[in-house]
């Protein structure tokens, strides 16, 4: 027994009719079949078996048909290791969980019940991922955010411009990894195939008449994380960044001269124009800021301010007020006495991580050396080693708290794990506290009984202080060792 965790044992046991343990057998579930189940008066819940193929992604849905009956479920692999745990601390009538299976095998699904002493429910294993719907059409100068789940695939179609080149791009929110990408022509010819090891993709599409393309985006993330990204189709930009939007409205439009450029005034208020191509307009004076629009080649814009070193100008690019890099523009009028303009703090940093089940199968009596994944707890037994190793599952439904300043600190934001993964995006530079309280009303139903192994703490709350830079991503992982599970 993992004796170090006895302090946290009793919280969940109150009022629970059955604690979920790994199932060794049960009724067989067939894909997309809804099966009626019954919780008996003694609190016994049937277990189920699903025969999966390697790489298959499914959604498990449990619908309670009896008022007051509170159901949750866990999924185990053939060796008894926990794959997914979906709790239900708020007593929802419908709960779902997405599972990606790693091998051809029979997986066990074990339900647990609390509340009403008996009742009925429906359980269904549904297909997840590609739905068979037609591809989304991506228009020129269009960009939007999208996401693809593990094992899923999304498709986009677009056409070339008959006169000018276009840039098709995908930029992942994760600086370490992006989706896997395949670009083909409408005749099926493969033009590009990129693995998820590359977080950003951009390919210039040459001018052509009547050429259509199909872009497939899939998620082969090894740790089961959803991939969020921005997809865009636009002419190449000048500031070196991938374009993410179309041009804003003009302030004044002129015809180009013989050199292809428009004339700028030599006196009067400061104005600017591009050097003949589209230039991105950003929320602040840096390419690290989000793009809010772009300005065209034959348009004059009023300058409304500058940054501290004069390398970026603020302009009225109707309907947006934004910033452009001086180095990729031409200036006219009097720009020597521009006032400093204010801009929002840069929110380009992030904190992400995983709350995972730290596996340790304890023997009935001490052995030397300790079992794989275990270390001596100093009390004659073992605990999990606190190391996030391959194959250890994430724990869904855990609320992670973010506070401003060094730990202990909460109240700034919360994130709920999916497949164990959580993320806090759009943060400014500074010091933050990331923490998980195992005894909170939300988390106790998922975690108790057990204890933290990473960071190792003697209390119910695990916390880590994180210092972020301006454009920074930090990873914080929390390991939990369940008392009655491997």
Architecture blueprint of SSEs:
Blueprint: H1 10-13, E1 27-29, E2 34-39, E3 47-52, E4 57-64, E5 69-76, E6 82-86, E7 94-100, E8 105-115, E9 119-127, E10 136-137, E11 142-148, E12 153-159, E13 166-172, E14 180-185, E15 190-194, E16 200-205, E17 212-218, E18 227-234, E19 252-253, E20 271-274, E21 279-282, E22 291-295, E23 299-306, E24 312-317, E25 320-325, E26 329-332, E27 349-357, E28 374-376, E29 382-384, E30 399-404, E31 413-416, E32 421-427, E33 430-437, H2 444-447, E34 450-454, E35 461-468, E36 473-475, E37 478-482
Parallel strand pairs: 1-3, 10-12, 27-36, 27-37
Antiparallel strand pairs: 2-9, 3-8, 4-7, 4-9, 5-6, 5-8, 11-18, 12-17, 13-16, 13-18, 14-15, 14-17, 19-23, 20-23, 20-26, 21-22, 23-24, 24-25, 27-32, 28-29, 30-31, 30-33, 33-35, 34-37
């Amino acid at each position: 027994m993992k004796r170090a965790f006895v302090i946290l044992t009793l919280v969940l046991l109150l009022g629970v009719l059955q604690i979920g343990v790994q199932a060794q057998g049960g009724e067989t579930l067939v894909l997309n079949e809804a099966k009626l189940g019954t919780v008996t008066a003694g609190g016994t819940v049937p277990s189920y078996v699903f025969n999966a193929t390697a790489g298959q992604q499914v959604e498990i849905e449990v619908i309670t048909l009896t008022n007051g009956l509170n159901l949750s479920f866990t999924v185990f692999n053939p060796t008894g290791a926990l794959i997914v745990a979906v709790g239900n601390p708020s007593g929802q009538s419908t709960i779902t969980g997405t599972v990606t299976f790693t091998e051809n095998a029979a997986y066990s699904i074990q339900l647990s019940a609390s509340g009403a002493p008996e009742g009925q429910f429906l359980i269904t294993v549904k297909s997840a991922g590609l739905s068979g719907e037609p591809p989304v059409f991506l228009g020129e100068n269009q960009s939007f955010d999208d996401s693809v789940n593990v094992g899923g695939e999304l498709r986009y179609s677009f056409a070339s411009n008959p006169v000018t080149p276009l840039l098709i791009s995908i930029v992942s929110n994760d600086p370490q990894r992006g989706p896997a990408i395949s670009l083909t022509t409408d005749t099926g010819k493969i033009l590009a195939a990129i693995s998820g090891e590359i977080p950003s993709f951009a390919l210039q599409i040459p001018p052509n008449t009547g050429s259509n393309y199909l872009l497939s985006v899939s998620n082969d993330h090894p740790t089961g994380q959803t991939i969020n990204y921005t997809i865009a189709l636009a002419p190449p930009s000048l500031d070196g960044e991938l374009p993410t939007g179309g041009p804003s409205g003009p302030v004044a439009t002129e015809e180009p001269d013989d050199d292809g450029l428009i004339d700028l005034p030599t006196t009067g208020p400061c104005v600017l124009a591009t050097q003949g191509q589209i230039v991105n307009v950003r929320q602040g004076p840096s390419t690290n800021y989000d793009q809010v629009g772009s300005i065209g080649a034959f348009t004059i814009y009023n300058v409304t301010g500058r940054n501290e070193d004069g390398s970026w100008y603020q302009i009225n690019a109707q309907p947006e007020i934004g910033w452009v890099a001086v180095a990729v523009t031409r200036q006219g009028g009097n720009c020597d006495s521009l006032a400093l303009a204010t801009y929002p703090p840069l929110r380009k940093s992030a904190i992400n991580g995983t709350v995972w089940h730290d596996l340790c199968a304890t023997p009935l009596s001490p052995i030397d050396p300790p079992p794989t994944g275990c270390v001596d707890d100093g009390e004659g037994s073992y605990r999990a080693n606190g190391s996030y190793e391959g194959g250890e599952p994430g724990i869904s439904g855990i609320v992670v708290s973010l506070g401003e300043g060094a730990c202990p600190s909460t109240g700034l934001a919360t994130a709920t794990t999916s497949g164990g993964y959580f993320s806090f995006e759009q943060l400014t530079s500074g010091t933050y506290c990331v923490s998980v309280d195992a005894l909170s009303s939300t988390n106790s139903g998922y975690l108790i009984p057990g204890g933290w192994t990473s960071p190792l703490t003697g209390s119910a709350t695990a916390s880590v202080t994180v210092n972020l830079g301006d454009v920074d991503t930090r990873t914080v992982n929390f390991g939990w060792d369940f008392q009655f599970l491997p």
